[in-house]
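To: structure subgroup
Subject: Chain for Friday's discussion

All,

I'm putting the inputs and outputs inline so they're searchable in the archive.
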Amino acid sequence: MTPSPAPQASFRDLFTPKLVTVLREGYGWRDLRTDAVAGLTVAIVALPLSMAIAIASGATPDKGLITAIVGGFLISALGGSRFQIGGPAGAFIPLVASTIAVHGYDGLVIATFMAGIMLVAVGFLRLGTYIKYIPYPVTVGFTAGIAVIIFVSQVRDLLGLRLSGPEPPEMLHKLPVLWQALPTVNPVAVAIAALAIGGILALKRWRPAVPGMLVMVALGAAATALFALPVETIGSRFGTLPTGIGFNGLPGLSLARVRELIVPAVAFAMLGGIESLLSAVVADGMTGRRHRSNCELVAQGVANIASALFGGLPVTGTIARTATNVRAGARGPVAGMAHAVFLFVFLALAGGLMSYVPLAALAGVLAIVAWNMAEKREFAMLLRASAGDALVLLAAFLLTVFVDLTAGIGVGIVLGSLLFMHRMAEAMAVDSKVRLLDEDVADSADGHGRFDPARSADRRIVTYRLSGAFFFGAAATVASVFDRIGDPPAVFILDMTDVPFLDTTGAYTLESFVHKLERAGTAVVITGLRDGGRQTLAHFGIAEPRVTLAASAEDAMRAAEARLAVT
């Protein structure tokens, strides 16, 4: 009996925010207290990180806080994950920095707004599930590349270098500029960065419950203020931070500007979708829950639109802060909303004090982020896995570092797809149930020769079995085997029981072969066709009565014998 198809999820099922689901399940004061504590924990982690990411991106530190406040609140309130924490992400640093350098901050705002619209559209079109098809070597490659870019972008502040001009965003131009500035190293900045990195690592090992990043940044700020240390601070480079959030709108929006910014907007949308869904998957793995991917993308889109309108940066789900939220015992999306509220309170009450934060301490924070982001063990494993995986990995990594993230992901996906198709084509097998000419076996790369009627059990019937996906990558292999059949038999049986997929190229190959057999007077029996394959072949005219379609190999043999009895 054919099983009934699974019921399709309704629009309401797919796009109901998890906040609504949690409230329907019952949400009390105890849950609120637990989520408030988790939100405060995440806010303490997000405070220095948001400022550091914004500075590394070429923006002012308050832009990072605005992104975490506005975008983080909306992602939690509207998203399809119970535990997702939104905000500025390290993965965006190279894209944001290059966009600001080329198009200015106003251009970044418009690109972020456009990316939000794209993400909303992708979510409502239910395309979120396709993001998971990005090959793993591509993900590891561009993530490692981003880690390298983040670290190199912090060399200036880690060493306290004085540059003669603006720091170029491109890696090939950035490295010579940093090299020329090495004689201007500031020992005090180096000491602050080293103490920040060492303190964060020490606290993580011996006191993991203590927010090491915030503690070391606060200590650096206190030391800088008390001893008037000769290092750059947030205040000396950016001035006093604002203590509120205002609506900015879209500056200079025009059709020409939209055309100019379409490429970075697509890059923001693509990376934001990938990063947010990876983060949601991590949260699912830690909690046993399941997120709604398309609902999550819609929330990401709305958050990016709002972040742009309020003067923020591109926003996405952040893996480290989401994991912190889960470990802090969050019960649901209210924790993420509380994290945004706490950040707003910090900005309103302590915005002036943040001016004393040394940039070297924030650079130390991002150095830790870059080290943790680089999936070192996975990178080494993929290098040893196979030549094909290593090629995809290195292409994504090197192009991300030396060209841009879009090229790294795009080329990586193309190479990964080609590698997959090659492997699927290699897995395609054609087996005959007749003996083959020995000399042709030796000459045949696939190990199959011409049919020899004199050596078969029945000289009038030939049976061939296909195994594997019969798609355009394998069509040439199958066609070459078919072409090696010598004198046509009276009946040709094609067993496709082990063919899980048949595309139009495979169907065209079969149609050409069936047409060749028809001209020779050979009857064709096909068995084991699945419903999808049956429909594809029917489009090419391969259906009864032109061929005989049998349900099993035994039925196919009986049909062949019946054909022989008629002739």
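Points worth raising on Friday:
The longest strand covers residues 491-498.
Confidence is low (pLDDT under 50) at residues 434-456.

D.
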